[in-house]
Amino acid sequence: MRLSRTCLFAVIFVFAFGALNIAQSIAASKDKEKQTKSTKVVVKSPKKPKAVRVTVTRANAPEVASPPSFATALGLRGQHDDLSLKSSVAMVVNQDTKEVYFEKNPNVSLPIASITKLMTAMVVLDSRLPLDETIVINPEDAHIYRRSRLAEGTAMTREDALHLALMASENRAAYTLARNYPGGVPAFVDAMNRKARELGMEHSHFADPTGLLSENVSTAEDLTRMVNAAYQYKLIREYSTWPDLTMVIAKRPQKFLNTNRLVRSGDMDIGLQKTGFINAAGKCLVMQARVNNTPLLLVFLDSVGTQSRFADAVRVRDWYERMPTGTQPIRRLM
Questions:
Q1: Domains located in the chain, CATH noted
Q2: Which residue of the set 69, 114, 148, 204 is catalytic?
């Protein structure tokens, strides 16, 4: 009886031990299955980043910002004034009396871009070189100014080149005019600076005939002197009254307050105008125009946007029209 009990205990012990081993085996196999499954997940997970290709594609790559204008670097951009102009520098002068009625940073020397071409035109006309003489765009002109509507080998008269330099602000035309000056471009630039001194432009300097160099600098006050001098040349008046301003306003009147009145009412008769732009200068505009039958010299430098310089001209016109009779000028130019 005792033996059978011993045997029974032995059987139970063996059975229990076996069951324990089986349980451990089952648990181990389950753990193995889990590991296998988890391994599969790890294997599959790398596929998910494929959906995250956006990070690699860079659809919206950051644009390289243009360098700031000189006026911006000097802290002039965005300064408030009584007329809420978008230009960093501005000036309004009575052409006859030289009385200043509005000014904003008038004595800061800044790059003037293609406004330079007014001085270029005066030097060409002062030289009294034959306007009907043929000049040619040569490889040097084409190499220096890559972008142009004038191909290498284009032949034109000196007057045609002057016309294109003023009306279309054509850089190759302006440079070719300087290159065909006695003594070439260096002598021409010397003549530009000599003319500036003659006009009393004490804070101005010219380095090339096109205005693409930022070394071509002037102040608003000096530019009123240059615009006044340029206005005395009949050809410059004729070639500088192209619809730079009037076309923009006539085609896009919705861009301005009531700027289409500028064209239709005839209350601002534009006698001369020239625009300019390089990054260092911002958007620029100079004008000679009549408002309320008064000849005005207008200067706008470093304007914020392409159209804002024209809108500034309209703001000045509207302001001058509303000016009470007897308003005293700020000062008079010497």
A1: 71-332 (3.40.710.10)
A2: 114
| Cα-to-chain-centroid distance, residue 56 | 32
Confidence of residue 111 (pLDDT cuts 50, 70, 90): very high
Known active-site residue 48: no
Sequence-ordered list of residues with C-beta below 8 angstroms from that of 257, at least 6 positions apart, any chain:
311, 314, 315, 318
Q: What is each CA distance from 159 to 126, 155, 174, 234, in whole angstroms?
A: 13, 12, 11, 13
Q: Which of 117, 214, 218, 283 is catalytic?
A: 117
- pLDDT tens, residue by residue, 162-185: 999 999 999 999 999 999 999 999
Start-to-end Cα distance in the chain: 140
Specify whether 303 is catalytic. no
Specify whether 4 is catalytic.
no
Given 87, 148, 169, 308, the catalytic residue: 169
Residues 6+ apart with CB under 8 A from 151: 137, 142
- Tell me what pLDDT residue 60 has: 56
Per-residue pLDDT tens over the stretch 247-266? 433 444 333 333 333 433 34
Query: Tokens standing for 197?
Result: 């001194």
Q: Picking from 119-133, 139-153, 212-226, which range would have the lowest pLDDT averaged per residue?
A: 139-153
